[in-house]
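Bumping my old thread because nobody answered last time. Still need a sequence for this structure:
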């Protein structure tokens, strides 16, 4: 029987925040339509979201690359005038102009953003490469290149035995892939089958490998093991905006038996 882990976990929700899906601001907003040149003083934030969930394989945004312009600030809320195109490595992205949205009962200022949902199985088969985003209209162009950004992230088991059977008191390591890219932060959690609480497992990071020890008092059971990590990546091109920043976010869930 397939194990059941019904609790809503934080990895996907946190990633959606990073993608800019939950942005908003004040109640008294002044709408303003701008050309792409009107966003030249903004920060462009990128987020590569690569979430391999056990139960929600096709959750919206789970495998998505997004670029989001910062908000104007104050009571100004800008939306992008029609006529702008956005591409990722020459392929069209979905462009959302942003602006005032009052459907939630109060005015929210949605950011201008563009995103592309990638097929993780395709990226896993393809060679690692750069990601280049280009937005342009008759007034201006914006470009961002993330060196080596196009790659499927995984945690590869390093050690003897199999990764789905963990022994209490033993230490285990998983290496971040692709090679040459090192996460700047990592996390490990365990959720017991039919359990309600996720336990954080202390972990260490060394040269791209995350290591953790299964505590001796961990109950024998089936668990959902979640490995997560993030890195800023390498921006080799940023033009047409004030600055570019962001993160590559990966998490994966594995069913394991603790004995």
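Sorry it took so long. Here it is:
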């Amino acid at each position: 029987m397939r194990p059941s882990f019904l609790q809503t976990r934080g990895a996907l929700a946190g990633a959606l925040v990073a993608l800019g899906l939950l942005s908003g601001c004040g109640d008294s907003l002044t709408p303003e339509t701008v050309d792409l040149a009107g966003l030249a003083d903004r920060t462009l934030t990128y987020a590569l979201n690569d979430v391999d969930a056990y139960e929600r394989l096709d959750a919206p945004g789970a495998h998505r690359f997004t670029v989001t312009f910062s908000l104007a600030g104050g009571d100004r809320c800008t939306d992008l005038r029609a006529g702008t195109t956005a591409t990722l490595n020459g392929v069209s992205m979905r462009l959302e102009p942003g602006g005032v949205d009052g459907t939630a009962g109060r005015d929210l200022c949605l950011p201008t953003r563009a995103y592309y949902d990638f097929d993780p199985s395709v990226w896993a088969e393809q060679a690692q490469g750069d990601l280049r985003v280009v937005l342009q209209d008759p007034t201006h162009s914006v470009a961002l290149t993330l060196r080596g950004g196009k790659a499927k992230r995984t945690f590869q088991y390093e050690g003897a035995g199999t990764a789905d059977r963990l022994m209490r008191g033993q230490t285990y390591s998983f290496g971040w892939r692709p090679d040459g890219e090192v996460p700047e932060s990592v996390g490990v959690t365990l959720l017991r089958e039919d359990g309600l609480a996720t336990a954080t497992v202390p972990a260490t990071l060394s040269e791209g490998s995350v290591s953790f020890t299964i505590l001796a008092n961990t109950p024998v059971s089936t668990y959902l093991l979640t490995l997560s990590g993030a890195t800023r990546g390498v921006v080799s091109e940023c033009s047409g905006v004030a600055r570019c920043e962001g993160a590559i976010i990966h998490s994966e869930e594995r069913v394991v038996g603790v004995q």
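Helices lie at 10-18, 120-125. Let me know if any region looks off to you.
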